Amino acid sequence: MHIIALKMLLGDRAKYLGLIFGIMFATLLMSQQISIFLGVLTRTASQIVDISEANIWVMSPEMKYVDEVKPLSNFDLYKVKGVEGVKWAVPLFKGMGVIKTHDGNMQQIIVLGVDDHSLIGRPPKMLMGNWHDLKQPDALIMDKAGWDYIWPETSPKLGTVVELNERRAKIVGICEATPPFMTFPLVFTKFSNTAKYIPQGRKHMSFVLAKSEAGLSPTQVTQNITKKTRLQALTTDEFRWRSIHHYLTKTGLPINFGITVTLGFIVGATIAAQTFYIFIVENLKQFGALKAIGVTNKQILMMVAMQTIVVAAIGFSIGIGLAALFFESTSNLNAMRGFFLHWEVVVGTAITVLIIMLFASYISIRKVLLIDPATVFRG
Amino acid sequence: MGNELLVTKDISMDFYSGNTKTRVLHGINLNIKKGKLTMVVGPSGSGKTTLVSIITAMLTPATGTVLFNNIDIFTLSNLEKTLLRQKNIGFVFQQYNLLNTLSATENASIPLLAAKVPFKEAQRKAVRVLQTLGLEDHINKLPSQLSGGEQQRVAIARALVHDPQFIVCDEPTASLDEKNGQKILKILKKISQKSNRSVLIVTHDNRIFDYADLIIYMNDGKLIENNSRVTKK
């Protein structure tokens, strides 16, 4: 009876295409929006993720997330270095500055000041130049997306001189970095340079980056640091989730994306349920005739299940294909860097689509199962 | 019980509208013999459809029994009743009730597919039956590409394909002109003459009465007359 079920479905082309469209629309909207949402959330913790050498972040007790910097004094660095279980500790600066180009263009940027000696906090991947060149006077390393933002359609050129907060700076390298939440260019310089470029008084350090001794858990060491220094110490993972949690709970991001995803679900479910319901109701007499002829309720259930699975599979495949195509075709755009179709989203969307189709078939199948086969004799 | 395929004993049926009970069948007793064409005739509302629904195990009567090959069908579960219809009864409906998106062959093969016969084998058998009904040029056509008479012949093929003992036809000529109606009746008459098979036709088309071996007249839910007759055709 499966072939009969398929022919019934495919034969009514308008409704078949309507069902496919509903599922495709829901799949595309849900998978694309959730993937972008995850991409945005990843960006909120991009600078934490990019610094792989350290496994502990120490900061002011009042700090809630990575973009809310409350400066520390140099003395705090020494206090952290003195805690048992800390292998090493280095300073990190994070702040905002303004770059002025040779032709007078001005652009706000994110400045990261990395440890002068070890250069811990440096860019994760160099595209041009060498990160050791940061030790040169007035040296900056800029991310490729930042270069493209300031000098669009121009190949990066090492040795380009700019002004950073009205002081001379020279670009000595181009790197690739995880895109930040704010789509500003990202520059790296030595920690000592940041005092010159962005003077902030006695308290200048944003974070202390630290590494736990081998054999000790980072969590245990963070507890030691908090106890001994009264500063807030978090493992990299804890800080990352703390930042993501902040954006989830204190901004309108989840609501905005949630509304779109919910609309995708509702519209998709409504189109699919309504079309499938009409399809079943219009074929009710035929289902009645099938029951009279001797087709069992179980066979009819299997027929509807087959129709459901076919529609869900085709609609989902087209929708997820379009979502993948969207991310593939926009992967070269700076604004879309780091956004991709997560496999977890693919699985989640597939389950949601199945729920939509189960709902659609549930409200329709009851009518079929309850139909009295004797109705076929009633004209 | 010798040559009887189906026997009803004292069948009564009530329909309810709110608290009001209406008796639509009053103690119907009838015997349907193998190898015969039986017609149930009577005006609209006389209870013909209700009677047919009961003897094909689609409705359960208020009282009485229906014995099909000596089996009391109302002792069966719903699934067993469905399987009884699937194996033993072929249906021809007034509006044909063919599936619009299936070809003549696919429509005719449905009872075999319901009985889990493999698709290709079911198609082969359906084509064979369609050929015996003169539809060899139409086996791949959709119902919308067939005339009323041709659609009804596809419906007859569907009723015969699984070789049931009992063929039940509900107003099989109501949507046809006289020429096609006569053609259909000749086919049904021929089918009924097979020794272990019975054909029951519910109709009020008096142009076809001459084909009947037995005519059962009904009015107001009662069996008025039960006439055996010598057929003219």
Name the beta content range of chain B.
25-35%
Assembly state of the chains shown = heterodimer
The largest pleated sheet of chain B is described as:
6 strands, mixed
Share in helix of chain A: 40-55%
- Topology of chain A as a string of helices (H) and strands (E): HHHEHEEEEHEEEHEHEHHHHH
Helix content of chain B: 25-40%
Low-pLDDT parts of chain A are: none
Q: Alpha-carbon distance between the termini of chain B? A: 28 Å
The residue-averaged pLDDT of chain B reads 86
Rg of chain A, alpha carbons? 29 Å
Helix segment count of chain B?
7
Shape of chain B: globular
Adjacency order of strands in the biggest sheet of chain B:
6-7-8-3-9-10
Give the spatial strand order of the biggest sheet of chain A: 2-3-8-5-7-6
Determine the structural class of chain A based on helices, strands and strand pairing.
alpha+beta
The count of strands of chain A amounts to 10
Instruction: Figure out the total of helices of chain A.
Output: 12
| Beta-strand content bin of chain A | 15-25%
Order of helices and strands of chain B: EEEHEEHEHHHHEHEEE
Poorly predicted parts of chain B: none
> What is the gyration radius of chain B calculated from CA atoms?
18 Å
What does this structure look like?
The complex is a heterodimer of chains A (379) and B (233). By secondary structure, chain A is of the alpha+beta class. In chain A, 52% of the residues lie in helices and 17% in strands. Chain A is built from twelve helices and ten strands. Chain A has helices at residues 2-11, 13-44, 46-50, 74-81, 144-150, 191-197, 218-229, 236-250, 253-282, 284-293, 297-329, 343-370, and strands at 56-59, 86-100, 106-114, 125-128, 139-143, 161-164, 167-176, 186-190, 207-212, 232-235. A six-stranded mixed β-barrel of chain A has the order 2-3-8-5-7-6. In chain A, a hairpin with a 2-residue loop joins strand 6 (161-164) and strand 7. In chain A, helix 2 packs across helix 11. The longest helix of chain A is centred in the C-terminal third of the chain and has 33 residues, at 297-329. The model of chain A has no long low-confidence stretch (mean pLDDT 88). Chain B is of the alpha/beta class. Chain B contains seven helices and ten strands. Chain B has helices spanning 48-55, 78-88, 104-108, 110-114, 119-132, 148-160, 178-192, and strands at residues 4-17, 20-33, 37-41, 63-68, 71-72, 89-92, 166-170, 198-203, 214-219, 222-228. In chain B, strands 6-7-8-3-9-10 form a six-stranded mixed beta sheet, sandwiched between helices. A four-stranded antiparallel beta sheet of chain B has the order 2-1-4-5, covered by helices on one side. Chain B is globular, with a radius of gyration of 18 Å. The model of chain B has no long low-confidence stretch (mean pLDDT 86). Chains A and B meet through helix 1 and helix 10 of A and helix 1, helix 2 and helix 4 of B.
